Amino acid sequence: MWLMGFNLDHNEDMLHLWENSQRVSLEEMHRSIDYRQLCAESSNHRSKLAAGIAKACISYGLLGRNLSRLCAEILEGENNGIDICKSYLSLCPNPQTSNLSLLNLPKSRAYQAQVDLHRACKQEQSANVTEESVWAAVAAETSAAVRQDLEDQASKPLNGVATQICDGYEHHQIANSQPLQPKRAHVELPVRVDFVGGWSDTPPWSLERIGCVLNMAIHLEGTLPVGAEIVVRSSEGILIRDDAGNQLHIQDRRSIAPPFHEDDQFRLVKAALTVTGIVNPSDKIMSSTGLEISTWAKVPRGSGLGTSSILAAAVIKGLQHVIGGDESNENVARLVLVLEQLMGTGGGWQDQIGGLYPGIKCTTSLPGKPLRLNIETVSVSSQLVLELEQRMLVVFTGSALLMECCRKL
User: Fold this and answer.
1) What is the tens place of the pLDDT at every residue in 81-134?
2) What are phi and psi of 231, to 5 degrees?
3) Residue 9 has what pLDDT?
4) In this prediction, what percent of the chain has a pLDDT beyond 90?
5) At residue 159, does pLDDT exceed 50?
6) pLDDT for 256-287, tens place per residue?
7) Residue 287 Cα distances to 12, 233, 399, angstroms
8) 3-state secondary structure the chain
9) Could you tell me which residue, 329 or 65, shows the higher pLDDT?
10) For residues 88 and 78, what is the distance between their CA atoms, to the nearest angstrom?
11) Looking at the chain, which terminus has fewer C-beta neighbours within 10 angstroms, N or C?
12) Using one digit for the tens of pLDDT, what is the confidence trace for 203-224?
């Protein structure tokens, strides 16, 4: 009784009640608890809370986080969670008709909310169809963020995005150009290791929030393992070769257009040709000349060293060189970000930054249009560099890590 704040010194009745009360041990108390009912009531309580939060988020456009976790909590309750999620579908803003700018809500987020609710309602087919619109919207938003002069293409196929990219700011650098003269570009780049911050660079996160990554460019066995060579040929057409002995000759450059199939082993080069504007049929730059493009990567596929993005950077940098375009690291990094969206891999900016800029650097991205990158070189002592070179060991476990697969997890 004293624990409850009662003073029994002058209260004989309360003291008598306390002395004659039944004593219950902790073990007896535990045995008296219906844990199944307790867990059920707890789940129902969490379900009701999640339903209220989800409804508020949808009603007020606060979709900065995905609804998938909230939907999972709703479905754990005893109430009909599927019916609740179905009712919320009607509350979702329609990306095609709603004025999402008033809510400061990207279309990709509005589509993603629908995907989460469709999946919670066991409507997998509808979820898969809507998910295509999510990544088309991400591609359009990414393109706009890196200063591509895009109109809103979120509800259109990716080839619509690609058309706008070809007509964007990068395209004007090569429009009305004279046919290419014989020229060669040879680009070799290191790979990168990521210390901390990976995934914060990846759209749509980096378009909505601050991203920050610390990584380092490295040679492998004393060499630059990733590279591309572009040669201007006197004959028309585009010849693409890789280090596995595969090659493809494309006579009509106008046949190169996204979306690119994920099984297309040359889709990276095709996407690079697209974002640099070379395959734009209105250009006369390739009217009487052709290109021979060779690529190599002495790194296992899916090794987690940023190889595909760095290879894309090498190809784009080489193409920009032969057409007289902007081959600065900053511009190449932005174009690779667009390229990743066209390929459907959905990559971010840290891989190409890691390969294009030497040494250790801390890169921060600020959301908005345009997407701004602040790259700070980290000064390290010569002793630390020596220790890293002597002690650092890169091991490939044989387990491939592919960006397009991670994105679907």
Assistant:
1) 899 999 999 888 888 776 776 667 788 888 999 999 999 999 999 999 999 898
2) -120, 130
3) 64
4) 40
5) no
6) 988 888 889 999 999 999 999 888 756 555 66
7) 108, 12, 44
8) CHHHCCCCCCCHHHHHHHHCCCCCCHHHHHHHCCHHHHHHHHHHHHHHHHHHHHHHHHHCCCCCCCCHHHHHHHHCCCCCHHHHHHHHHCCCCCCCCCCHHHHCCCHHHHHHHHHHHHHHCCCHHHHHHHHHHHHHHHHHHHHHHCCCCCCCCCCCCHHHHHHHHHCCCCHHHCCCCCCCCCCEEEEEECEEEEEECCCCCCCCHHHHCCEEEEEEEECECCECCEEEEEEEECCCEEEEECCCCCEEEECCHHHCCCCCCCCCCCHHHHHHHHHCCCCCCCCCCCCCCEEEEEEEECCCCCCCCCHHHHHHHHHHHHHHHHHCCCCCHHHHHHHHHHHHHHHCCCCCCHHHHHHHCCCEEEEEEECCCCCEEEEEECCCCHHHHHHHHHHCCCCCCCCCCCHHHHHCC
9) 329
10) 18
11) C
12) 888 888 899 999 999 999 889 9
As a whole number of angstroms, the distance between CA 256 and CA 277 comes to 11
Residue 272: both structure tokens together:
């690079």
Q: For 2-43, how does the pLDDT look when each residue is reduced to its tens digit (9 = 90+)? A: 666 666 666 777 777 777 888 888 888 888 888 888 888 899
Q: Any idea which residue has 């002592």 for tokens? A: 381
Residue 179 in tokens: 């046919």
Where residue 236 falls (left for φ over 0; alpha for ψ -120 to 50; beta otherwise) is beta
